[in-house]
């Protein structure tokens, strides 16, 4: 999740566990610090854009390493008072950070150093005000309220609401996945790999990506589903996947890494400059993706560091479309015919 959300969650968890054993501002501050620490790995440059991606949310998000770090941080924060309670609070702050990240689709390596498997449920977008705002309100109430008990209750309410919202996101995701699989079956498409993630900032409109089981199939399938669509059939769009390029360069380290990290949700193409471009299909929408990488000319793939190429649709038309599509209006995305940014 985004940095503000992690700060808010860390502060809310720390306030809830510390209670009245320390000043509210200290719990808010230390919760914010511990909630931020795991993401400092983003400052590390591994010298290659693909490596920077797949090594983010790795050791710094390990449940094991964070558990080891918790008592050290608690010893500093406690300053000789209520050490065990600070240990419990900061351990929960550190652990809830990667667990919340796992609700997004990026990929969080919770089991380092024993496994580098990237967990990602994908039921939450990286920024969602409905999750973050209750946490912020609760933390501010606990910090500023003259009635400590009342402030702690507001904080608990914010945590409870946000946690229930996470549960709701899983229910909505499951409902959309069932609809998508039924639709694909009716169309005669065999696809075990079906990705369902929310469109930005909410959990009503969902994007679905389906990868055919046949590795030689040249296309992947994309659809948007609103929970307000009713019984209307899904409208699928079909896009080139570059299966021949993926097969030809499957052994290239960058292709291997990105394919494993995304669980196969990748496409390949030749860029206008003649570079092999591989794209993570999970974050973005056709034709704009956050994580695309040029990994070298076709006859020298991977012999030079990868370069990240990001694109996005014009923001205002895209947000306007999301708002209308959320309400169930079956309208096409406007950005196909608009200038690229």
Q: What percent strand?
A: 5-15%
Class based on secondary structure composition and strand pairing: alpha+beta
- Cα separation of the termini: 24 Å
Largest sheet: 4 strands, antiparallel
Radius of gyration: 22 Å
Mean of all residue-level pLDDT scores:
93
Shape: globular
Poorly predicted runs are: 337-341
Strand order of the largest sheet: 1-2-3-4
Helix count, DSSP H or I runs of 4 or more residues? 10
Number of domains: 2
The portion of residues assigned to helices is 40-55%
Number-wise, the strands total: 10
Query: What is the N-to-C order of secondary-structure elements (H for helix, E for strand)?
Result: HHHHHHHEEEEHHEEEEEEH
Entry keywords:
14% strand, globular, single chain, 341 residues, 10 strands, 45% helix, alpha+beta
Notes on the structure:
With 341 residues, this protein is an alpha+beta fold. It has 2 domains: 3-168, no CATH class; 177-326, no CATH class. It is built from 10 helices and 10 strands. The chain has a 4-stranded antiparallel beta sheet. Helix 1 runs antiparallel to helix 5, helix 1 crosses helix 7 (148-187) and helix 6 (129-144) packs antiparallel against helix 7. It is globular, with a radius of gyration of 22 Å.
């Amino acid at each position: 999740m985004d940095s503000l959300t992690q700060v808010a969650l860390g502060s809310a968890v720390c306030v809830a566990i510390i209670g009245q054993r320390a000043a509210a501002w200290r719990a808010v501050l230390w919760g914010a610090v511990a909630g931020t620490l795991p993401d400092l790995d983003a400052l590390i440059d591994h010298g290659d854009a693909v490596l920077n991606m797949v090594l983010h949310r790795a050791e710094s998000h390990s449940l094991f390493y964070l558990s080891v770090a918790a008592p050290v941080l608690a010893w500093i924060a406690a300053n000789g008072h209520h050490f065990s309670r600070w240990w419990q609070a900061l351990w929960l702050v550190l652990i809830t950070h990667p667990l919340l990240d796992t609700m997004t689709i990026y990929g969080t390596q919770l089991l380092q150093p024993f496994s580098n498997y990237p967990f990602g449920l994908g039921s939450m977008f990286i920024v969602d005000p409905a999750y973050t705002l209750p946490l912020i309100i609760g933390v501010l109430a606990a910090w500023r309220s003259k009635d400590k008990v009342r402030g702690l209750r507001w904080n608990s309410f914010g945590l409870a609401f946000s946690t229930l919202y996470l549960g709701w996101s899983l229910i909505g995701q499951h409902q959309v996945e069932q609809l998508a699989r039924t639709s694909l079956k009716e169309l005669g498409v065999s696809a075990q790999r079906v990705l369902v993630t929310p469109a930005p900032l909410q959990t009503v409109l969902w994007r679905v990506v389906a990868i055919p089981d046949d590795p030689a199939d040249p296309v992947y399938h994309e659809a948007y589903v609103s929970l307000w669509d009713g019984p209307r059939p899904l409208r699928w769009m079909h896009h080139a996947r570059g299966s021949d390029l993926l097969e030809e360069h499957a052994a290239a380290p960058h292709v291997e890494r990105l394919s494993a990290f995304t669980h196969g949700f990748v496409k390949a193409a030749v860029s206008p400059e003649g570079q092999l471009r591989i794209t993570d299909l999970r974050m973005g929408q056709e034709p704009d993706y956050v994580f695309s990488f040029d990994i070298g000319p076709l006859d020298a793939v991977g012999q030079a560091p990868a370069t990240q190429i990001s694109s996005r649709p014009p923001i205002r038309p895209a947000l306007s479309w999301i708002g209308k599509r959320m309400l169930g209006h079956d309208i096409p995305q406007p950005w196909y015919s608009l200038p690229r940014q």
